UniProtKB/TrEMBL annotation:
It comes from Callithrix jacchus (White-tufted-ear marmoset). It holds the Pfam family EF-hand_8. Transmembrane segments: none annotated. This is Recoverin. Belongs to the recoverin family. Keywords: Calcium, Lipoprotein, Metal-binding, Myristate, Repeat, Sensory transduction, Vision. One of its GO terms (biological process) is visual perception. InterPro entries: EF-hand-dom_pair (IPR011992), EF_Hand_1_Ca_BS (IPR018247), EF_hand_dom (IPR002048), Recoverin (IPR028846).
Length: 200
C-alpha cells in the first residue's frame, strides 16, 4: 500500500483511485492521512468499522447491517479493509453511478457470495435494515412493508420469483432499474418516509 514511514499514498494506488472514483488527489491524500491516524496499521477491522457505523445510528442497532456492508467491501476476504477498499466503499455508497451502486447492492444481498440471491438472503439484509429503523419510523411504513418479512416478500414478488428461486446479478440490476419501487425497498431512508407521509 502506501509508504508507511512517510505516510504517503503510493502513486499506483492514488492513480487507480482517481481513475475509479470522483475523488481528487488532494481529497485522497487528506483522507489517507486521517485513515492512518485512526488506523495506524493501515487497515480497518470489522469491529472498528462497526464502531464508526454506530456513530451514524446512535439510537439503533446497526451491527448486523455494518457486518454485511463490511463483508461486501472486503474484496480479498482478509477480515480487514485497507485504504483502497475503504475509498471504493465510500465512493460506491455516496457517489457511484447507479449501475455501480446496484452491483454493490447485489454483493450486499448475496450473503453467501455464490453469485445469486435467495429470498432468505433478502430477508437477512432486510432484518438488518429494520434494526436501524426507529419504532416511530416503522409506524410510518405502509402495512404491506412494516415488518422485515412483509418487506422481503414485497421485494421478492416485484422480481416475479417463486420462494425457492434464485436471482442473478443481471436480473437484480435490470429489475431494479426498471422499477423504482424495488430501489426504494432494498434501501432505507427514514427522511423520505417522513416526507412521503407529510406530502402524499
Amino acid at each position: 500500500m502506501g509508504n508507511s514511514k512517510s505516510g504517503a499514498l503510493s502513486k499506483e494506488i492514488l492513480e487507480e483511485l482517481q481513475l475509479n472514483t470522483k475523488f481528487s488527489e488532494e481529497e485522497l491524500s487528506t483522507w489517507y492521512q486521517s485513515f492512518l491516524r485512526d488506523c495506524p496499521s493501515g487497515r480497518i477491522t470489522q469491529q472498528q468499522f462497526q464502531n464508526i457505523y454506530s456513530k451514524f445510528f446512535p439510537d439503533a442497532d446497526p451491527k448486523a447491517y455494518a457486518q454485511h456492508v463490511f463483508r461486501s467491501f472486503d474484496s480479498n476476504l482478509d477480515g480487514t479493509l485497507d485504504f483502497k477498499e475503504y475509498i471504493i466503499a465510500l465512493h460506491m455508497t455516496t457517489a457511484g453511478k447507479t449501475n455501480q451502486k446496484l452491483e454493490w447492492a447485489f454483493s450486499l444481498y448475496d450473503v453467501d457470495g455464490n453469485g445469486t440471491i435467495s429470498k432468505n438472503e433478502v430477508l437477512e439484509i432486510v432484518l438488518a435494515i429494520f434494526k436501524m429503523i426507529s419504532p416511530e419510523d416503522v409506524k410510518l411504513l405502509p402495512d404491506d412493508e412494516n415488518t422485515p418479512e412483509k418487506r422481503a416478500e414485497k421485494i421478492w414478488k416485484y422480481f416475479g420469483k417463486n420462494d425457492d428461486d434464485k436471482l442473478t446479478e443481471k436480473e437484480f440490476i435490470d429489475g431494479t432499474l426498471a422499477n423504482n419501487e424495488i430501489l426504494r425497498l432494498i434501501q432505507f431512508e427514514p427522511q423520505k418516509v417522513k416526507e412521503k407521509k407529510k406530502n402524499p
